[in-house]
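## Example pair
The file below holds two records. Each record gives the amino-acid sequence first, followed by its structure token line.
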Amino acid sequence: MENACMHDTGEFLMKIIKIVNNNIVTSLDEQNREIIVMGRGLGFGRKPGMTIDDGKVEKVFRLNSAGENQKLVDIIQDIPLEHIKAADQIIEYAKSMLGEKLKETIYLSLIDHIDGAIERYENQIQFANPLLWEIKQYYPSEFKVGVQSLNILKKMLGIELPVDEAAFIALHFITAEYDTKMDVTFDIPRLIDDIIAIVESEFSIKINKESIHYERFITHLKFFAARVLQAKQMPDDDDFLFRNMIRDQYKESYACAQKIRQHLGECYGVEISEEEVVYLTVHIKRVTMHVD
């Protein structure tokens, strides 16, 4: 059975492969790639092989693999259309604001999360987010997306979720940006907290959280944390001269970096390469140089 065809006018017509529910079907696009097509009533009273009514199509999902497509089908088949549309609008907003290429798994995780959050809201169940402060502090752009997500949900579905939920939503976008697993994403803010505390303690300073130097330090730490927690850190190279120079010129910062290395090994079970320690030393030196 053919799944797509060209009309006499040259217009491409999608045909139904599988009916997921009354509002969602699967088909193939012009490149013969599997797609998930969504729209109110798209699958109602229809059968595989029938042409999809373009006028009812509201969204087409194209994921890179058949496995990801099937996961998305499994997730959305029992989720109300309005919840999926709200999650999709949130994702589109996030793409426009974050300016990053988000991993397509964001569709799987966020649609499922939004549906669960709505269910908790309806059952008057609220979860406090233990990382609320850290997410606001270290990921302000993603947190703003989370806050706007609450506005989108209020506008589209008439529900008011607490600010803790904005932080939970932000975590999904952080995960999609840094290509990490959710448990790693949860650990990153804690790890950054620990590093900041060690630096301030070792140098007996209070870092200005409003300074550009702090902002740059945090940017480095976010990528540093994502690398070490996933065992993807920078390997040691053969530039002994550079490493020796950093150790000699920035003795206090290097000693601080070594304390951080020891702490992360003890508390997070990770081994930090000398290359990572050297670059961390440089960033510690920069941020501690600019303290009032």
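Second record, same layout:
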Amino acid sequence: MASSIVRYAGEAVAFVVAESRYLAEDAADLVEVEYEPLPAVVTPERSAKAENLVHADVPANSAADVTQAVGDVDSALARASHRLRRRLRLERSAAQPLEARAVWARWDAVEGRLTVYDSTQSPTSIRGGLAVLFGLPETSVEVIAPDVGGGFGPKIMLFNPDELLVPYAAMKLGRPVKWTEDRREHFTAVTHERAQVHEVDFGFDDGGKLLALDVDFIHDAGAYTPYGLILPIITAAQLPGPYRVPNYRVRFRDLYTNCTPTSPYRGAGRPHGCFVIERVMDAIAAELGL
């Protein structure tokens, strides 16, 4: 949970446990938090300017700046019979599964055993993580993922705060604890699919053969990077698609913003690479009248 700084709308700041959901909702309404407004960095383009920092100790809002290349891109672009540039933008999106998330936990103090029912896409990872965090052998932690009512990515986070707090409360209170997300909570706080902005420079010959591809893109990570760099790395790897590109260079910057964190959604970065390379091929066809 947030301590001194809240970095995105929907970030948890308090945890309330009560005998019923109704009492918990009423008690949560009694929690008073004084917020001091800070400048908001809400797009990757704004983040790239670094006029305001999401994390004071992260220069330029940059979680990573990575460049990969094969061949001689600059020479191939200079020699190409045709050369075009495009700017392509992909927005964020939020999945809305039929059922929102839920966690139920029970601690058996006699046997030293933790049982968790979790609407997660990754029960084995949750199990291993809970064992490490609570200092338990994995054999003493059971995580059960029943029918989850759809996942699509938001239910593969490691971890959502509730997946830690509910088991923790069950262990502290010595009784079962459950939490069920409502639709408004899901829409506000669930992890999103990533936004990206691509600057694309490409050269091709009279027959439409792609000779060189130079891509520089920024990736909207959100306020935190729970999955590291895997999403932009997958996009960078998938950008050439099924085509032979003898000269390829890609640079990406993984940038923090004051938006919800991103997690692997369906395709996990691959649709972005596919979108870019197919727009490139469409542009080549249109330019040559193919």
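Notes on the second record: The chain has a mean pLDDT of 95. The helical segments are 21-29, 44-49, 73-79, 123-133, 161-173, 183-189, 230-238, 270-288.
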